[in-house]
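Support reply, case 0932

Customer input (verbatim):
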Amino acid sequence: MYLRRLHGGMPPWTEDPILHQHRFTNTYRAADRVSQFLIAEVIYGEASPQQPQDVVFRILLFKLFNKIETWLALEDAVGEIRWDSFDFEHYGTALDKAATRGPVYSAAYLMPPPRFGESSKRLNHLRLLERIMRDGLPAFVSTTSRLEQVYAHLRSYPSIGRFLAFQFTIDLNYSDVIGANEDEFVVAGPGACDGIRKCFGPAANGIEADVIRYMADTQESHFARLGLEFPGLFGRRLQLIDCQNLFCEVDKYARVAHPAVQGISGRSRIKQKFTPVAKPLSAFFPPRWRLTTMAVAQQWTASQLAIFE
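Our regenerated output:
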């Protein structure tokens, strides 16, 4: 579906009614719409500052709300978003104004409220970010090449649990501040644990990270066994974070396709419906991945795309 859209094909991009009607994330996390904005605009935009403290500040500020519209509203109100010009009152006023026009948080996942004495969840998250920055996180992440160390550091802050700490670690690693290998470390979030339970049953309890690594390590052999032609992301194989996300999507898909198969949480429906948008998809990834994205995408022919029926 992604390659069809990227190639300029018109909807529907699939005959599968579940995929057609409901919202799913991309097979590759970095190709998802919000991640694409983070990578192309927040991190590597033409005018984006590249000092480690600014890169870390911008990534975490964006991800605390995980909503493109909130970022654009902040930019419109405060100008260039940089740590050295950060002013809590200015940013807080901008967030309060944005909140009068609609939600400032994405509905993708819940953001637990930290307790820093402010009058709203959004202002408490701003205080949390201020504390993280003043504690020297940019210097820490720029001197380590270990994802697990960054994850453990983030986990030490209030309201940042296992799932968010891992997601933030991967987001920071899209930049050049860390530059670690994504296949170094993985944490299974609640949705992934649900999907793994539906695939493998209770025997997978407690070994979810091992299941994810097995999936990543053996993907080519199983594509071959099942007769599936999967080109990857312009040649990039599925990483641990992608397989973690895919189990989340398997859980969602199974709620409709296999309602009798139970996960851990007991969720039984997909909340968000899919509505196609007219804006073309982007394809910009961390430069160190060295993906020849658009040049390759434009070479796809109708017959090649047909393998993804």
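We compared this against your earlier run and they match. Two observations from our side: The chain has 16 helices and no strands. Residues 61 and 129 are 7 Å apart (CA to CA). Please reopen the case if you see a mismatch on your end.
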